[in-house]
Amino acid sequence: MEEKVDMKKHILNISKIxxxxxxxxxxxxxxxxxxxxxxxxNQSGIKYENARGFYxxxxxxxxxxxxxxxxxxxxMNPLQIWNEQGYTSYVCAEPQQSIFAAYYMLKEVLTCQxxxxxxxxxxxxxxxxxxxxxxxxxNNALKYxxxxxxxxxRWKDLTVNDFQDRDPDYKTxxxxxxxxxxxxxxxxxxxxxxxxxNRNASITQTTQMYLKKFIDLAHDHGAEVMFVWFPSATTAxxxxxxxxxxxxxxxxxxxxxxxxxxxxxxxxWQTDTRDGGNHLNYSGASKITKFLGQYLKENYELTDHxxxxxxxxxxxxxxxxxxxxxxxx
Amino acid sequence: xxxxxxxxxxxxxxxxxxxxxxxxxxxxxxxLLSASYLYYIAASxxxxxxxxxxxxxxxxxxxxxxxxxxxxxxxxxxxLDRQQKKEFKEKLLWQKKMVVILMLLINLGxxxxxxxxxxxxxVLNFALFDFLNIHIPMLKxxxxxxxxxxxxxxxxxxxxxxxxxYKADRNFGRVALFLTFFPTIVEGPIARYDQVAHQLYEGHxxxxxxxxxGTQLILWGMFKKIVIADRANMxxxxxFGDYLKFSGISVVFAIIFYTIQLYTEFSGAxxxxxxxxxxxxVHLPDNFKQPFFAKSxxxxxxxxxxxxxxxxxxxxxxxxxxxxxxxxxxxFVRNHCNEYLSKLLPxxxxxxxxxxxxxxxxxxxxxxxxxxxxxxxxMVIGMFMEPVFYKVKNALHINKETRYFHIFQVLRTVxxxxxxxxxxxxxxxxxxxxxxxxxxxxxxxxISVLAHLGLSVNDIMVVLIGTIVVFIVGLFKEKGIEIRKxxxxxxxxxxxxxxxxxxxxVIIFGAYGRGYDIVSFIYAQF
Amino acid sequence: MxxxxxxxxxxxxxxxxxxEKSLIDDRILDSLDVMNLTVELNDEFDIEITPLDILPENFxxxxxxxxxxxxxxxxx
Lengths: 329, 526, 76
Description:
The complex is a heterotrimer.
Chain A: H1 2-35, E1 64-68, H2 70-75, H3 78-85, E2 89-93, H4 99-109, E3 117-121, H5 130-145, H6 148-151, H7 160-164, H8 205-220, E4 224-229, H9 238-251, E5 255-257, H10 282-299, H11 312-324
Parallel strand pairs in A: 1-2, 1-3, 3-4, 4-5
Helix pairs in contact in A: 3-10, 3-11, 4-8, 5-8
Chain B: H1 6-22, H2 28-43, H3 49-77, H4 82-132, H5 147-163, H6 172-180, H7 193-202, H8 208-240, H9 249-279, H10 297-303, H11 306-321, H12 324-336, H13 339-362, H14 366-395, H15 403-425, H16 429-438, H17 457-478, H18 483-488, H19 492-509
Helix pairs in contact in B: 1-2, 2-6, 3-4, 3-5, 3-6, 4-5, 6-7, 8-9, 8-17, 8-19, 9-15, 11-13, 12-13, 13-14, 14-15, 15-16
Chain C: H1 2-11, H2 31-45, H3 56-59, H4 62-75
Helix pairs in contact in C: 1-2
C-alpha cells in the first residue's frame, strides 16, 4: 500500500518537473524572437556581420562556401576569385569559431544558398579537450534552438519595434564577401620552423562527430566538401597535418595544406603576414587565393558568371572593394 | 569543466543524478565515486590523478595504523599498573606521532613542493645568492586540481583519528569518495570526514524536495556568478590592469567592485557546489554566513570562507597552542611578564602561525603572505589596544549596543576588508600600495567617470541592483528567514512564476557569450 | 566550581558566567579566550586538555567546563 502511494507521489513529482521544463522551453521559444537582431548587420546586434552577408546575396547564387576561423577570412578573398575565375564564393569566418558553430553556420547558409563546394578551414578542428568540446556543442545547439542564448545581451538595445515586429529581415550584403582586408606587414622571421613544434595533435571524439555531421549535411544538400589549411605559424604542425590527413583519407575528402606545400604560389613569411605569422595580409591572401581559385576551377564544375547580367553586382562589388582599399585593378 | 558550464550542469550533473537514482541503494556510492574520478580526469589531466590517489592511500593507511596503536593500548591497558600504563602510553604516543609525521611528510610534502617550491627557491636565491653564490633552479610544476583543498581534508581526517575523535575508516571507497567528491574538489568547502563521509556513502533514494531545493541553490549561485561577478570583473580588470591611469573615485569604485566580485563569485560557487550536493541529498557545510554583516574582523573571518578558518583553528591554532614547547613558552611569559602581556603574547604568537598559513594557502607569493599579515596585524593591534578603546568609549559615553554603533562597526569592517581585497587583487604589493595612495589623489564625487571604466552604465546598474538583491537576501537570513523555504510554501502559480523569472534573469542578464569573457573561478587556482 | 568561576571572571570581566549558557554560540568566548582558558585550567587543575576536548559543547557554560575538568581528572 505504502509503495503504491510512494509510486504515485513519484509520478506526480516527475510530471511536475516535466511540466515545469516544458513551460521554460515554451517561453524560450516565445521570447527568443524579441532578442533576435532584425537585420543582419553589426548595428542591429550581429557580432560578426562579415560572416553573415550570405543572406544578402541573391538566393542560390553562391557557388563555393568557405567556413572557418580568423585564418580563413585573412587568407581567402572571394572577389579576387570572382575576378580571376568568374565563379562566386563566400567566406563565413568568425574569430575562434569551433566546428560546432561551423555546423550550425552551414545549416543557416543552406537555408538560402546552394553551394556546390563547401570548404572547411581545418585549423578549428584542434580544440582543448573533450569536456570543453562537449560544452561548446551543447552551447551551440542551445543557441540554435533558442536564439535567446546567443542574443541575450541585446536587452540593452531592445526597442518597441523588437516586440512588435518579430520577423527578422536579413538582406544586408557584404561587399567584401566575408574577406577582411589588412595590408600591413609584420614578418615571421622563423619561417616554417613552427611545423616541428610540439602541439597537441589529437582531434577529440566530439569534434570528429560534428565533422561527420558537417560533411553529411553538405552532402545531403548536394555540396562537395574540401579541407583547406591556410598558413598559420601559431597553430599548424606536421603532426597535426598528419592527423587531418588521416581523417581526410578515411572520410574521402580532399585536403590542401598550405603549411606543408606552398604549390609555387611564391608565399613568403617575410612579406605575407600581418602579425608575425598568425594571420596573412593582403599580399599573402592574393597568392594563396590565386592558387585556390584555380584549383577549384580545375577540380569542380563551376560556371563562369562574369558575363551573366544577373551577377552584375559582383563586378560592382569588386570595383568598390579595390577602390576602397586603394588597390590597382 | 567549470561548475557554470553546460557540460557540467546539464550533462555531467544530470547524468550522474540519473545513474545515482536508478542504481540500487547499496551501490549508489560507486556512481558518485566514478563520477568524481571522471570529473577529476575531465577537468585536469589523467596522470595528475596519481597525486590524489597517493594522498587517499597514505591517509587511509595511516589512519588504520593509528587505530591499531590505539587498540593495542586498550587491549593491554587492564594488565598494567599505573606506572607501566603511563610509560606504555608515552611509547605509543611517540609511535602515533611518527605515523602522523610520515603522513604529513607525504601530503604536505607534495603540496609544499608543487605549490611553493618556486616561491621558496626564489626567496632563497634572493637572500643567499650574494653570500654563497649558489642558484637554486626554478622548476615547471603542475598543480594537481584541488590539491589545496583535498590535502586539508586529508590531514584533518588523520589528525582527528590521532586525537581519537573517531575511528579510522576501513572502507577505502568511503575515504576516497570523501576526498574526491566532485562538487567540492575544485574549491571546497573543506569538509570534515565526520560531516560528510557517511552521507556520501550511504545512498539516498530520489528526494523531490532536495532535487528542487538543490536546483534553486544552483540557480542562485549562477545569478551571483554570471550576472554579478563576471560583469563586475570587466570593470575590475579594466582598472587593475592599467592602474597607473586611474585615481580617486575610479580606484575606490574598482576596489569595491572587486570585493563584490570576489564575494559573489566565491559564495556563488559555494551555492552551486552545495546545490549540486543537495541534489544527491548530501548536505555540505556552509562556507559563508553574510560576511559583510560582521562587526569586527574576527567575526568577518568566522563568516567568510568558514571552513578554511575552522580548519586553521582546529589544526594550526590548537595544535600550536596546546603543544609542549608552546606550553613552556606560555609559562615563561606568565612568570616574567605582567598580566596584560601574559594574556596577549601567547595568543598573538599562536595567531601568527594561523595567518601566515592563511596567507600562504592562498598562493605562493609575497603578496599573499602580506595579505595574511595584513589581517594579523589588524587583529593584534585590536587586541593590544582593547583597554584603550574601552577607556575611550567610556570617556565619550558611547553605548556599544546602539544601532548606530553597530552600523559604524559594520562599515569599519567593510572598509578594512576592502583594503584587504585590494592587496589580494593587485598584481604586486607595490601596485596595491600605489592604488591605495591614488584613491586620495584627485578625489571628488564626480561619478560620471564611472561610465568610462570598461563597463556601460547599463551593466553597472545590473551589478548594483544584483548586489542590492544579494544584500536583501542576506538581511533576511540575518533575521533567520530562509527565502528558499518561505517560497517553497507559496502557491504553485506565484512560486513557479518566481522560479521562471529567476531563470530568465540569469539567461538574459548573465554576462556570458559574445562580448563577455569567460571568467574562471578565482578560488579554483588555489 | 568557585575556582573555575574566578578564573573565568579574571579572563573576561563583566560576563555573567553563572547564567550564560551558550558562551561559544553567542560569541562571548572566541578561540583565543578558549586557548587562554585551557592553559589556565591545565595549570590550575593539573589536567591536560587536548585539542580533541576543545569542542563548543565543552565550553558553552560553567557547568559544561566543570564536567570536562572532572572527567579529565578522573582519567588522569
